[in-house]
Amino acid sequence: VKVTVDDCESQPSRNTLIVISGTTEDPGDNTCTVFPNPADQILYIDLSGFTNEDVQLTVSNASGIVLSNIKARGGGVTGLEIEQLKCGLYFVKARQGEMVRWNKFVKDTF
């Protein structure tokens, strides 16, 4: 990158790789509660904001790769077995029709 202001020109910057590994966006009301966090065997997801019908749960890793799709019942709390996951950061998305909620969780061993 070279910056020019009036007749003043900066030296070109060197090539730099920038990796974005997170976001500072405020999730607002689009989150669902997950607990415990971190978790090691079972992650509980509060689906009480959904109607008592099927909710599609999608678990993805930090790279966005979908690892599993599970159907759960809305209207309460459901448990998700995560024992098979490697330690790390994951995302869970809950969808029922147009309503979508998500959260991140950490898989850890205790």
Written description of the protein model:
With 110 residues, the chain is mostly beta strands. The chain has no helices and nine strands. The strands form three sheets. It has a four-stranded antiparallel beta sheet, with no helix packed on it. Strands 3-4-7 form a three-stranded antiparallel beta sheet, with no helix packed on it. A hairpin with a 6-residue loop joins strand 3 and strand 4. The mean pLDDT is 86.
Brief account:
The chain has strands spanning 4-5, 8-9, 34-35, 42-46, 54-61, 66-73, 77-81, 88-96, 99-107. By secondary structure, it is mainly beta. The termini are far apart.
Unreliable residue runs: none
- Give the helix level as a range of percent: under 10%
Number of strands: 9
Structural class: mainly beta
Bulk shape? elongated
Gap between N and C termini: 47 Å
The side-by-side strand order for the widest beta sheet comes to: 6-5-8-9
Radius of gyration, CA atoms, in whole angstroms? 20 Å
| Approximate strand percentage | over 45%
* Mean of all residue-level pLDDT scores: 86
* Topology order in helix (H) and strand (E) letters: EEEEEEEEE
The biggest sheet, with number of strands, parallel, antiparallel or mixed sense and barrel status, is: 4 strands, antiparallel
Please, how many helices?
Answer: 0
